[in-house]
């Protein structure tokens, strides 16, 4: 009953974390990559030692292709992100980089393709959220008292918004520090966070539903508190094993997936937190508010 006893404190912690994350997104912004806004990505490696980044930046400026984002890649390479460039400009860039530079890959995405990807990403997110609401409402249709079944779905969505907002806030801060960009991996990470978060929440809600059906406890608050006591150890243990694997990818995995792994780690951590310390306490607060209104 510890969690339910101090439910307002845990909800307040979540509110502070979400507020900080929103501030991070507003202040630092999300740095959209070429997947969304269009552009070109050139990856090169040097046969000898890699030159200083400042020298590469000066060489790129001589080509007059506008602003370019240059980042180290591997031990002897660079990734160069620019506006959508032509084949002629691409050849000029390679000349400016020097004879030791070898092109490893080149990707060009037009603005229309980026806009289409944004549209599909938004549609995917909306469909996932709607699917979760309807599925939970259907699964809990026989649990109408003391909280209506659709409110379980609503609280699950509140938890999802909590998890996604915090994960995006972490990403915005990482983007400010490291230049990490929003790309297709970011969308995959967000959708994965949605799945991981709702799975934990459903485990808790399902135990609440079962205890309501059995009717061993006198009040809804007691039912939720005892249900959390029965499942939180398993939820934390399961999430911890996944987080350990993700942390291994963060510290020892390839650089190309490091930000993705950090996003999943944050999503898994806060998803577990919201399932235990946010979604169920909010149900109790909602039920208490309903009782007050009836009186």
Description:
The chain has 295 residues and is α+β, with helices and mostly antiparallel strands. It folds into 2 domains: 2-34 and 112-294, Up-down Bundle (Multidrug efflux transporter AcrB transmembrane fold), CATH 1.20.1640.10; 39-109, 2-Layer Sandwich (Alpha-Beta Plaits), CATH 3.30.70. Helix content is 71%, strand content 9%. The protein has helices at residues 2-5, 7-28, 34-37, 53-61, 87-97, 111-139, 149-178, 184-214, 220-252, 258-294; strands at 39-46, 69-73, 77-82, 101-109. Strands 2-3-1-4 form a 4-stranded antiparallel sheet. Helix 2 crosses helix 10. The chain starts with a helix and ends with a helix.
User: What is the name of the CATH topology of the largest domain?
Assistant: Multidrug efflux transporter AcrB transmembrane fold
Class computed from helices, strands and strand pairing = alpha+beta
Fourth-level CATH superfamily of the largest domain = Multidrug efflux transporter AcrB transmembrane domain
Strand order of the largest sheet: 2-3-1-4
What is the tally of helical segments?
10
């Amino acid at each position: 009953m510890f969690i339910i006893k101090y439910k307002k404190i845990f909800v307040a912690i979540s509110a502070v974390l979400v507020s900080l994350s929103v501030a991070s997104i507003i202040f630092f912004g999300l740095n959209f990559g070429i997947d969304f806004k269009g552009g070109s990505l050139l990856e090169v490696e040097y046969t000898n030692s890699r030159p200083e980044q400042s020298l590469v930046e000066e060489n790129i400026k001589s080509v007059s292709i506008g602003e370019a984002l240059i980042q180290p890649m591997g031990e002897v390479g660079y990734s160069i992100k620019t506006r959508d460039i032509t084949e002629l400009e691409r050849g000029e860039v390679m000349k400016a980089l020097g004879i030791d530079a070898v092109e490893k890959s080149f990707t060009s995405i037009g603005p229309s393709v980026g806009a289409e990807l944004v549209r599909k990403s938004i549609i995917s997110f909306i469909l996932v959220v709607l699917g979760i609401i309807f599925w939970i409402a259907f699964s809990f249709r026989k649990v109408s008292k003391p909280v209506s079944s659709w409110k379980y779905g609503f609280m699950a969505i509140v938890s999802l918004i909590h998890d996604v907002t915090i994960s995006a806030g972490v990403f915005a801060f990482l983007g400010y520090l490291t230049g990490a960009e929003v790309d297709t991996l970011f969308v995959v990470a967000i959708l994965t966070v949605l799945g991981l978060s709702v799975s934990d929440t459903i485990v808790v809600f399902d135990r609440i539903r079962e205890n309501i059906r059995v009717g061993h406890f006198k009040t809804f608050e007691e039912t939720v508190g005892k249900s959390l006591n029965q499942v939180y150890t398993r939820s934390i243990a399961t999430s911890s094993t996944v987080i350990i694997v993700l942390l291994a990818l963060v510290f020892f995995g390839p650089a190309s997936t490091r930000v993705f792994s950090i996003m999943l780690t944050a999503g898994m951590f806060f998803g577990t937190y919201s399932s235990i310390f946010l979604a169920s306490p909010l149900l109790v607060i909602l039920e208490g508010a309903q009782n007050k209104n009836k009186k």
